[in-house]
Amino acid sequence: MGFRSFAVSRLPAALSGLSGLRPAPEPTAAEAASFDALVQHLGYLPKGDIKRIREAYKFADEAHLGQFRASGEPYITHPIAVAGICAEWRLDAQAIMAALMHDAMEDCGVTKTELIERFEAPTAELVDGLTKLDKLQFSTKEESQAESFRKMLLAMARDVRVILIKLADRLHNMRTMEAMAAPKRRRIARETLDIYAPIAHRLGLNEIYRELQHLSFQHIHPWRHAALSKAITKARGNRRDLVSRIERDVVKAFADGAHPVQIHGREKAIYSIYKKMREKHLSFAQVSDIFGFRVVVDELPQCYLSLGVLHQLYKPQPGRFKDYIAIPKPNGYQSLHTTLVSPLGTPVEFQIRTEAMHMVAEKGVAAHWLYKKGGNPSGTSAESAQQLGSRWLQSLIDIQDETRDANEFLEHVKIDLFPDAVYVFTPKSRIMALPKGATPVDFAYAIHSDVGDHCVAAQINGEPVPLRAELRSGDVVEIVTAAGARPNPAWLSFVRTGRARSKIRHFLKNLEQEESRDLGEKMLAQALRAEGLSLPSLNDEDDDAAQLWQQLARWAGNRHADELLVEIGLGRKIATIVAKKLARMLAEQGQRPDAVMLSIGRFTADDGPSQGQVTLDGSEGASVRLAACCRPIPGDEIKGYLGRGEGLLVHTAECQVGRKLFQRDAEHWIAVNWAEELTRPFEAAVSLLLKNGKGVLAQVASAVSAAEADITHIMMSDEMQQRETAEMNLILSVRDRLHLADVLRTLKRSPAVLRVWRVKP
Q: Quick check: 136 pLDDT over 50?
């Protein structure tokens, strides 16, 4: 939740001053452009570091000379403001220097080499990570934007200071957007709300998160923002007496118990109120937790003692207590949350935390530098502050390893930026934090990619559940694996984490590559057999054959033989053409066609397309698909279409869709036949005309079962109840054409069935 703080000890004055986020007067353009304005915030750094920062300022000032912002101010005011925000987090000198020069490469033509020579490699790397990819050509603006995000996020995964500087940059831009045109303001605000604010939250930077949300809301919905601001100001006055009374009671209760604590009032942020109203369909008057209190103590045990004091003072609301100290949020946030019933019957939320927890809660990742420079006030959490977000940052690199497409990468990152989380346990009581809506498959991949890849079943709290079941906080999850199992493409429809989605896609892509390679090798071997030759060995130990394959791959424009075979299997290269080139290369080496093989090859290729013949047994994977229009089954006469980059698509010989494709693109068709031994059943589409009546569906299902077939899908008319007859469409799982004929005969004998036929396009 987003809240802003006010000190209880001076509640009325603080409440009256809450209407603006930044009450301090803005410096003039001249003041903001001077280095002295920044030096005031750098007292925590040694003099040598400040001298280096001054050099970076002079460099940036010269680079931006003559440039102005949309407001008319000198451009250098922006880098100084960004550096000032970074100085508030007490970042080191390298980060402050990078903040001053963050636009130098992008807007001023400064090269990375020049920055390395002047300011050394670490600073130059930070600046480079902040630079967008404007110099490259992209087909769309969205592709360019996605690629720039990917570059920034990967730089951030290597060094978290990149994102801290970027968030400071975005924060200052959001604060100073008034001079821009309204459509541009809304676009930047929407991007901030979708990407930058969630990143700030994911890294625990709650102050930045709340302000970015507030400013984005203000620019996207200015009228709604103004109306809510007015309502909150009015509510402040109406509830002042209640807040003052609760404050007095709480202060007295802690004083009587001799507990030294700091008590602060909290006001819910405008955007959080708006979001709650939208999600729960509430009016402003129905939002009860606009005001709350925060109790800050010195030591961790005092958190639980303070909780006891508050529960003795007012009655707690059942089910509204959360212990984020024992189980921290994924971004490192720790506090006790409890909701109490006030003297007037309204609910009031209290947050209880130590000073160290408060610093982490507000500053997140940046708390590491504050601890390092300012000392740890409680002796706890310094190490955890340094580790904040590290697991998520590492996951960015893991996702990048499997996702080369920038838009897909950004999609995975967006999935992982949802702030809501559920907390589940492994059988060994290890806590795992996953996004809301996560499933056992997400849990399996969170443990290890091998566990996810071989997952076959799951148990929650000892009970078997489907793999698409949603996990709830407190669940104990156990994954059942099998050595021969592999990811199912259907999992992509329900997994919630970017890690799981990228791992599944990566596995399926690799699987498709392997299957396409095997298909390509088979097709090339059969096409070469028509030339009277056998395929050379692909064994790396055979140097002559390896050299031959390398020459063939170079001729085809591929890097290596495996890539060439994949392209043949995907239909991007014609097996016959490659086979003829390979035959000429073998002839140059002195190999002659074998007469027996030549006659066999010609005999099999006489009546069909000339790419050789592929045999199907049902074990084919993603590289071979049966066309949904005609749904071929064993016994049907079939043909294969090698779509460009889509693998082999199999149609029945009588399929009208296939015939049109053949007329348009005959050279991409190959001969296909069924194997004698089949490894699985196949699907066929059947339509039935039924007498409408009670128990019709049961009669049809019984007849199909009697014929030893299965129904995989049923579709019935919406008007079935109003008519005497109705049409039903089934997808049946059958062994072959003879089995289908047996099923149709059995269905015809059913009293409810008037007519039954196989659906053909």
A: no
224-386, which class in CATH?
Answer: alpha beta
Q: Does residue 267 carry a catalytic annotation?
A: no
Yes or no: say if 728 and 715 are a contact pair by the CB < 8 Å rule.
yes
What does the pLDDT read at residue 507? Answer: 83
* Structure-model confidence comparison of residues 757 and 552, the more confident one: 757
Give the residue extent of every domain in the chain.
33-181, 224-386, 506-674, 682-758
Q: At a CB cut-off of 8 Å and minimum separation 6, what does 643 contact?
A: 571, 649, 668
Buried/exposed code over 80-119 (b: 16+ C-beta within 10 A; e: otherwise): bbbbbbbbebbbbbbbbbbbbbbbbbeebebeeeebbeeb
Higher-confidence residue of 633 and 153: namely 633
Which residue type, as a one-letter code, is found at position 675?
A
Q: Which of 61, 92, 107, 143 is catalytic?
A: 107
Write the CB contacts of 104 (distance below 8 Å, at least 6 apart in sequence).
Answer: 59, 60, 63, 64, 110, 115, 127
Per-residue pLDDT band at 442 (split at 50, 70, 90): very high
Cβ burial 633-652 (10 Å sphere, 16+ → b, else e): bbbbebbbbbbeeebbbbbb
Percent helix / strand / coil, the chain, rounded to 5: 50, 15, 30
- The DSSP bridge pattern shows strands 669-674 and 613-616 to be parallel
Q: Do domains 33-181 and 224-386 have the same CATH topology?
A: no
- Max mean pLDDT range (186-195, 282-291, 588-597): 186-195
Would you list the DSSP string of 201-268?
Answer: HHTT-HHHHHHHHHHHHHHH-HHHHHHHHHHHHHHHHHHHHHHHHHHHHHHHHHHHTT---EEEEEEE
Instruction: State mean pLDDT over 205-211.
Output: 84
Residues 273 and 1: their CA atoms lie apart, in Å, by 9
Report domain 33-181's class: mainly alpha
Looking at 49, 73, 106, 114, which residue is catalytic?
A: 106
Domain range 682-758, CATH architecture: 2-Layer Sandwich (3.30)
Q: Supply the angle between the helices 367-374 and 355-363 in degrees, to the nearest 10.
A: 130
User: Are residues 131 and 106 in contact, defined by beta-carbon separation less than 8 angstroms?
Assistant: yes
| C-beta of residue 661 within 8 angstroms of C-beta of residue 650 | no
Quote the distance between the C-alpha of residue 526 and its chain's center.
43
Tell me the pLDDT of the chain averaged across its residues.
77
Q: Do 652 and 637 meet the contact criterion of CB atoms below 8 Å apart?
A: yes
| pLDDT band (50, 70, 90) for residue 331 | low
> CB–CB of 651/641 below 8 Å?
yes
Structure tokens at 761: 């396009």
- Asked if 107 is an active-site residue, the reply is yes
Position 696 scores a pLDDT of 84
Contact by Cβ (8 Å): 582, 534: no
Contact between residue 250 and residue 354 where contact means Cβ atoms under 8 Å apart: no
Q: What is the pLDDT of residue 215?
A: 92
pLDDT tens profile 37-80: 788 888 888 888 888 888 888 888 888 888 888 877 888 888 88
